[in-house]
Every structure is written in structure tokens, then in C-alpha cells.
Amino acid sequence: MRFVVGIYRLLIAFFCLGGTYEAWLLGIGNKWVYFTFQTNIALGLVMLWAGAATLLKGIQPPAWLKGCLTLYIVITGLVAILVLGLNSTDYQLVLGIRTTWMIHVISPILASVDFLLFDPHRRFHWHNVLTWLIYFPFYVAFVLIRAAIWPHSGPEAGGNPYPYAFLDLGHLGWAQLTVNMAEYLVVFFALSLVIFLIDRILPAKTPLTIDR
């Protein structure tokens, strides 16, 4: 089972990193602005760590880090499906698979299964529900500062520096942007709480749990 779980985690890393190869291999800098690319690359690196640690009986990534990345990769999938849609024709293929599906659908599903079945549980602390949310305000600040400094840098059409419509300060204005961010934070908090409660409800270990 250890071998299977280790390979499974490396497979997650493959989908995360393979689906974002435009950012880290081709040097297309504006791809790094996308929330999806940042979360998938971070998850891919941590899953490389987790997969190697599983196979070699090494030290696993800390629980708070796995929990945080599970939260944000789930958010990535939900936002893509419910808000943005997956009908874009602007995609690449890796081994015949659309990269947009790799990073918006496949990696969120596989990471969720890893969290539910293979991770030990009841390791999160209450404060994790809030500390996991810190990344999002920093991400928004990064997008806004970058847009102010390089207003025509893309990645969107016409050089628009805002990667998502709900972050487009030029179109929305500060009032609506603030409302949007508050709404997203509330939803993110709810999802963070759900992940925490699932972790508390599940048994500390299952027959499939790999903790070393």
C-alpha cells in the first residue's frame, strides 16, 4: 500500500506540474499571475515531497501545509467550474490531456481523495481555519500592485493585467472589488471550516493511512 500511495502522490504532482508547464518551463511570466497556476505549482511541489517521503519512509509535509493546499486546490476547482467555466479553447495538451482539465478538475479531485483516504486525521488546530486564509489577501495585493506597476502586462486580452473579472479593479472600482473580496473570504472561510470539521470527524487513522 505504501508503494501505491507514494506513486499516487507523485501522479498528483505530475498533473499539477504538467498542467502548469507554461509557467515554469516556457518562461511565460504572466501565467504566474493566475491563482490556479500558483496553487497547482505549490501543490505539485508538496506532493513531490509527500510522494518521495512515502516511498522512502521519510518526513511528510506538515499537516497545516497539506490542509492549506487542499483548501486552495478545492477552491481552484470550484471557482473554475461554478464561476469561470471550463469552455476555454485556449489550452495545451500534455499526453493528450487538456492542461486546463489537469489543473482545474483532475488535481483537485485527486488531492481531495489523498486528504480523505491517505492522510492521518485530527491533526489540525482551530487556528488553522483562519491562518489558511492569509494567502488570499496576499494574492489579491500581489495582483493589484502588479497591475498598478505594469498596467498593460497581461495575461488577459489586450494586455489587461487582471487575471479574473472579479478582480478587475479598472472595471469594478474599489467599492465592488471590496464587496467581491469580502464575499470570497466568507466562502473560503466556510470551506476552510468544512475541511477542518471533516478532518475532526474522520478517524485519526484508517487502513489506508500513510503517516511516514
From TrEMBL:
Leader sequence residues: none
Keyword Transmembrane tagged: yes
Keywords assigned by UniProt, alphabetized: Membrane, Transmembrane, Transmembrane helix
InterPro entries: Pr6Pr-like
Listed transmembrane segments: 7-26, 32-56, 68-87, 99-117, 129-149, 184-202
Protein name per its UniProtKB record: Pr6Pr family membrane protein
Protein species of origin: Bifidobacterium asteroides DSM 20089
